[in-house]
Amino acid sequence: MRPRLPVVFGSVLFGVPVLVALLGPLLAGPVRSAAGPLRPPSPDFPLGTDVLGRDVLALGLSGGASIVALTGLSLVLAYLLGVPLALLAAGRRSRWADGFLLRALDFLLALPGLLVLLLLAAAGWRSVATLIVAIAVLQLPAVVRIVRSAALAPGCRAAVEAMTMQGEPWWRIHLGYLGRAVLGPVLVDAGSRLSLVLYLLASANFLGLGLAPSASDWAVLVERNKEALFLQPFAVLVPALLLVSLCMGTNLLVDQALLRRNEVR
């Protein structure tokens, strides 16, 4: 029974915020405003109000859909761009092309994420699509380096050389075999990268890039109410705990999936 405990625990941690994100808006209804901000819990507002005088319970129920969708789309786009690019770079025998790609990515890596978001906001590029693309591009250097390192591991290179000598086509070797070989590192990296993407989304939304600073989004709520943590802790702790639960649950499930994959092998 013990091996199942992490799976059950991870499923609960992951499932609760996802269910709240999916079903919460149906239960919350319209977000009500109180007579004043930072009101303590009361019969009308069970978790009190935030800095804008809005019902914290309704905000917690309705604020998950946007952050889950934006985070998922940003991560998927980052790996859809980064994994094929890294596999192509690892499969090339030209050191010049590989070096050029890494130096271009180093330029992106040197750019502070918050500075890029500030520049986009100042330039008027405030749409949700811009936010998703910007965050995905900011993740590319790390994604490409991790996948490229996994693809260049000695075990992978030996298998690639054997398949090449057997006459296997290039695409089957570098996109098929190597793609499966790097799946583990990609999943581990995605689980840990989730928290970084959440942080960037919160900062971007607070700057007005993507969602408005007054949006009922978990990440925005944490950023918006953090100064009032000791005056109205529920306004910060409720969305923060849901985000922490989402990150922990995702990483636990990824770890258990990789353990099972290794045991099958």
Question: How would you describe this structure to a colleague?
Answer:
Helices cover 74% and strands 0% of the residues. The chain has 265 residues and is an all-alpha fold. Helix 3 packs across helix 8. The mean pLDDT is 85.
Secondary-structure map:
Elements: H1 4-28, H2 56-62, H3 64-91, H4 95-110, H5 113-122, H6 128-151, H7 154-165, H8 170-181, H9 183-206, H10 218-225, H11 234-264
Helix pairs in contact: 1-2, 1-3, 1-11, 3-6, 3-8, 3-9, 4-6, 5-6, 6-9, 7-8, 9-10, 9-11, 10-11
What structural class do the secondary elements suggest? Answer: mainly alpha
Order of helices and strands: HHHHHHHHHHH
Count the beta strands.
0
Low-confidence stretches: none
Looking at the structure, what is the overall shape?
elongated
Please give the largest β-sheet: none
Which whole number gives the mean pLDDT?
A: 85
How large is the count of helical segments? 11
Proportion of strand residues? under 5%
Could you estimate the helical fraction of the residues in percent?
A: over 70%
> What is the rounded distance between the termini?
22 Å
Radius of gyration in whole Å, from Cα? 22 Å
Report a brief summary of the structure.
By secondary structure, the chain is mainly alpha-helical. It has eleven helices and no strands.
Task: Please tag this protein with its features.
mainly alpha; 0% strand
